[in-house]
Design a protein that fits this description.
Length: 312
């Protein structure tokens, strides 16, 4: 157990680290530019949902964030996916800078890419197709990177970071093609060999959560990840969504999800009230880490939550 004194001096050291301060400044520019880009495209910004009886079940094991309050069980938000789908009943286009708490297991601390509290620029559009989201995100990434070059030259010089501005359209790789060519570590291999961000699309049904739309081939999903080059790895996942009750039930059955855990969301689906949408979430810390050429996402936050470590 770390003593209070050691922890507080570590906090103070982190707060005055010039690398951290530069990265946080760049992140602030990324967030500001992304928000005005989306507002300029008629997106309505929502405030984040932090607690709810329902949240994303995720596709991997994390410790639980359940607590009870006046007989109602709540979870901390792991992603706002279901709230995004529902918000598209009110507005055609929405976005949120959404804090997510995912209590990852401690070995994730070594990845350089995980925090147990992080943020997504999370967006969703009613009646949209995957390709529309991909094109929008390509423009957003290019706009944001140009803005960082223009507005953060001092910080970028200090960090010796000069990522090239990608050109549109980004390359697209199909999940199974990559898997067959490079084996199970294909994402790491491809991320290290590319020099610009690229899309990984058409994940097989077992690789992702139940809410990504199953294609007509019944094997792959209408989804995508954005993979950063030079080994920085994944920074975005998204896709078109399931919105019909029976299909959702079948997909939950396939993944072993319990419909009871999503009670009122399932009631709304059963009433035929969900609308078709597509969207995605950009990992803010991962994007900032790439733009700033940093070894670890913990340097993109003043108060980083490193899996398995006591922090502030
Ligand atoms: N935000 C992601 C999406 O829109 C979901 C996630 O983070 N698990 O698909």
């Amino acid at each position: 157990m770390e003593s209070i004194g050691r922890l507080s001096s570590r906090v103070l050291e982190h707060l005055s680290d010039p690398v951290v301060k530069s990265a946080v400044k760049v992140k602030s520019t990324i967030l500001g530019e992304a928000s005005s880009f989306l507002r300029g495209k008629n997106f309505v910004e929502l405030l984040p949902t932090i607690v709810s009886p329902i949240t994303d079940p995720l596709n991997h094991e994390v410790h639980t964030t359940r607590f009870t309050y006046y007989d109602q069980e709540y979870r901390l938000t792991q992603s706002m996916i279901f709230h995004k789908q529902l918000a598209c009943k009110s507005f055609e286009r929405i976005f949120i800078v959404s804090p997510n708490v995912r209590l990852e297991t401690s070995e994730k601390a070594l990845s350089g890419r995980h925090l147990f509290e992080f943020s997504q620029i999370d967006l969703e559009i009613r009646n949209a197709k995957r390709e529309q989201i991909m094109s929008l995100i390509e423009d957003l990434i290019i706009t944001v990177m140009l803005s960082v070059k223009r507005n953060c030259s001092e910080e970028m010089d200090f960090l010796s970071s000069d990522p090239s501005i990608p050109s549109k359209p980004f390359a697209t790789v199909k999940f199974m093609d990559a898997y067959e060519q490079y084996g199970k570590d294909f994402e790491t291999i491809l991320s290290a060999s590319f020099s610009e961000p690229f899309w990984l699309i058409d994940f097989p049904i077992w690789e992702r959560e139940f809410y990504d739309l199953l294609s007509e081939d019944k094997r792959t999903l209408k989804d995508m990840d954005l993979i950063l080059p030079h080994g920085f790895g994944e920074t975005l996942s998204g896709g078109e969504r399931e919105w019909e009750h029976q299909r959702i039930l079948e997909r939950m059955g396939f993944k072993g999800n319990d419909p009871e855990e999503l009670s009122w969301y399932m009631d709304i689906a059963e009433g035929g009230e969900l609308v078709p949408t597509a969207g995605c979430g950009i990992g803010v810390e991962r994007l900032t880490r790439y733009v700033c050429s940093l070894d670890n996402v913990s340097r993109t936050r003043l108060f980083p939550k490193v899996p398995g470590q006591s922090w502030i």
